[in-house]
Amino acid sequence: MSEKRTSIHGQWANRTVFILAATGSAVGLGNIWKFPYITGENGGGTFVLVYLLCIALIGIPIMMAEITLGRRGKQSPINTMIALAKDEHRNPGWVWLGWMGVAAGFLILSYYSVIAGWAMSYIFRTGSGMFLGVTADGVNSIFTDLVSDPERLLAWHTIFMVMTMMIVARGVKQGLEKAVTYLMPLLFGLLVVVVIYAMTTGYFMQGVEFLFTPGTITREGVLTAMGHAFFTLSLGMGAIMVYGSYLSEEYSITQAAIWIAIADTVVALLAGLAIFPIVFANGLEPGAGPGLIFQTLPIAFGHMQGGTLVGVIFFTLLVFAAWTSAISLIEPAVAYLVENKGLSRIYASVWIGFLTWFVGLGTVFSFNIWKDKTMSIPYIFDNLTFFDTLDYLTANIMLPLGGLFIAIFAAWVMREQSTKEELATHPVIYKTWRFLVRFVTPLAVIIVFLNAVGAIKI
User: How far is it, in rounded angstroms, from Cα 221 to Cα 230?
Assistant: First the structure.
């Protein structure tokens, strides 16, 4: 048994706070923005069923593995991988896994902050009545005016980054813990308010049927469900690992992972129940794609009774979801600077926040003054903007590889006794987890990865 470590950053007050924090990390734009539209594009009920199956077979096993590594290492992902490789007498080169997770979180937040800024701006646009009686062309014009104005995007990007770093700078107890304790219940509450409104549209049952009635799903739809089940739980980017490092040994990793997956899935399904009745009530297209939130729903908010209030609540919900994810994305890098450079959390947060903000300028400009400037990497991608390049590299390469090698390290590199000590669960549950994370989960992630980079088409 390795020596017991203690995190210098503190630890969560209890398991509930950890679940709220990890759920906050997992619940983001992907649940409220992406899940509804990919469900719409892939036929509804059958897609949801496949997605839930993938959560059980891919998401939960990798989450258990990532929390296990974090709690055993009790440090930032980089130092955790150094310590665990040493504990298990393995090649110190495994530190690259920690570096990749920290880098992925950093890069994701750099563009995530810009998209969150859109949602912040829409709170005020909706509240001002800008969408009242607006046509589809009018909504498109409003959106185009926003993203084509670099100064406006820069302002919202800056505000969101400052909000994020103010929380992270306050530490685990006074910052992260307090934030999720208030923000997560508010997020759930706001989502329930929108669902209750959706029940009054007269199309609620149509939304229920769309989400839960089995339909036809393509092979591509299955791969989309597999990929989203992996990405939605915030895996492979160091966030869950560093949050796991603040978890006391007395709490069950298995139970925590299951509760996080349930909460994350409930938010995604509630988002669907909130959005689809409004979409159907206004004769809109449920498979409208990425524009569903910023270019389709505003039409509905502008034409329905009470739409201004519902719209403000909805975009506030979107910002809260992005905010709880953002603080987890930057925490691994901040923790590393505190551990290795002797900086206070305030200085570490300022430095990482500034660097993230600076890289985010590339995303800001990708929608306007740099929109015609593209990048290419032979055999990987062609002619992508700066924003699309970061999105492609993180979502399609860094996160799947991170999740895959987390599974490999936990199931093949660590000694069985080490993982048994951390999971401390029923033998049948442990054996099931070990089988899934050794064989089923890695194979599924490899398939998703190869399909995403175009190496295979199933």
Answer: 14
Domain region containing 416: 15-452
Indicate the SS3 state at residue 449.
Answer: helix
**In a domain? residue 10:** no
* Residue 437 within a domain: yes
> What is the number of structural domains in the chain?
1
Q: What is the pLDDT of residues 369-419, one digit of tens each?
A: 999 998 887 767 788 899 999 988 888 889 889 999 999 999 999 999 999
Domain CATH number, residue 144: 1.10.4160
Sign of CA dihedral 270, 275, 277, 280: negative
**pTM score, whole prediction:** 0.93
Question: Residue 434 to residues 94, 128, 216, 241: CA-CA distances in angstroms?
Answer: 20, 54, 33, 18
Specify if 4 maps to a domain.
Answer: no
**Closest residue by Cα to residue 336 from 324, 349, 327, 355:** 349
Exposed e or buried b per residue across 242-262, where buried means at least 16 C-beta atoms within 10 angstroms of its C-beta? bbbbbbeeebebbebbbbbbe
State the Cα–Cα distance between residues 328 and 336, nearest whole angstrom: 13
The pLDDT value given to residue 2:
54
